[in-house]
Amino acid sequence: GAVVSQHPSWVICKSGTSVKIECRSLDFQATTMFWYRQFPKQSLMLMATSNEGSKATYEQGVEKDKFLINHASLTLSTLTVTSAHPEDSSFYICSASGVGGARSYEQYFGPGTRLTVT
Amino acid sequence: TQLLKQSPQFLSIQEGENLTVYCNSSSVFSSLQWYRQEPGEGPVLLVTVVTGGEVKKLKRLTFQFGDARKDSSLHITAAQPGDTGLYLCAGGSYNTDKLIFGTGTRLQVFP
């Protein structure tokens, strides 16, 4: 149980274009989803927290107009990188929580999306 | 700002050796999770500890949450090449759903 998928697993785009990444909870309802960014050989950096039906809460230093997050349902959240630039190239990972009960504080991670902007 | 520092940062050992990874903070956490991440994949949850002083065992892995809920350790007995990966601790907050991730420990186990 508690499976999270991401699509696509990797994407290459040209500078100036926008890219959408989907995160789905497959076998549970995710009341909260999180988006992280990870640079090579480093730990995870939280970008934003999203709750179903409400606006995402962005971490300090993350541009909300550049990284658009939508949490339209209890099983789907999307991250859109707008007007991508090479410095946006990274590994983006989503996680979801809300399995319920006493373990609702645990986060279950998707497999990640490797974005390369050329 | 809550920070979780892991040590060591890197660890390279031979198969069969034992090792301990430490996760330390000056902040108190409501829970502490340990994850393992392999290259190009998302982190996989190994264990959650929620009670100060709690010890959990998962086959050759032993996890401990400090009495004061500020630190944790992961001990691996008789490491195997399959244990290779990035180990991340993450602390839960009393006030939010967010996790504070540790700096990570990269483990390499050679056959």
In short:
Helix content of chain A is 0%, strand content 51%. With 118 residues, chain A is an all-beta fold.
Tell me the total number of β-strands of chain A.
Answer: 11
Secondary structure: number of strands of chain B: 11
How far the N terminus sits from the C terminus of chain B, by CA atoms, comes to 40 Å
Derived structural class of chain A: mainly beta
N-end to C-end Cα span of chain A: 37 Å
Radius of gyration of chain A: 14 Å
Low-pLDDT sequence parts of chain A:
none
The proportion of strand residues of chain B reads over 45%
Apparent shape of chain A: globular
Instruction: Give the percentage of residues in beta strands of chain A.
Output: over 45%
The oligomeric state of the chains shown is: heterodimer
Question: Biggest interface and which pair forms it?
Answer: A-B, 24 and 23 residues
Characterize the largest beta sheet of chain B: strand count, sense, and whether it forms a barrel.
Answer: 6 strands, mixed
The share of residues in helices of chain A is under 10%
How do the SSEs of chain A run, as a string of H and E?
A: EEEEEEEEEEE
Number of helices of chain B: 0
Helix content of chain B: under 10%
Low-pLDDT regions of chain B: none
Structural class of the helices, strands and pairings of chain B? mainly beta
Task: Write a structural description.
By secondary structure, chain A is mostly beta strands. Helix content of chain A is about 0%, strand content about 50%. Chain A has strands spanning about 5, 10-15, 20-25, 30-40, 45-50, 55-60, 65-75, 75-80, 90-95, 110, 115. In chain A, the strands form two sheets. In chain A, strands 2, 4, 5, 6, 9, 10 and 11 form a seven-stranded mixed beta sheet that branches. Chain A is globular and about 40 Å long. Chain A starts with a strand and ends with a strand. The mean pLDDT of chain A is about 90. With about 110 residues, chain B is an all-beta fold. Helix content of chain B is about 0%, strand content about 55%. Chain B contains no helices and eleven strands. Chain B has strands at about 5, 10-15, 20-25, 30-35, 45-50, 55-60, 60-65, 70-75, 85-90, 100, 105-110. In chain B, the strands form two sheets. In chain B, strands 2, 4, 5, 9, 10 and 11 form a six-stranded mixed beta sheet that branches. In chain B, strand 7 (about 60-65) and strand 8 (about 70-75) form a beta hairpin. Chain B is globular, with a radius of gyration of 13 Å. The termini of chain B are far apart. The model of chain B has no long low-confidence stretch (mean pLDDT about 95). Chains A and B meet through strand 5, strand 9 and strand 10 of A and strand 4, strand 5 and strand 9 of B.
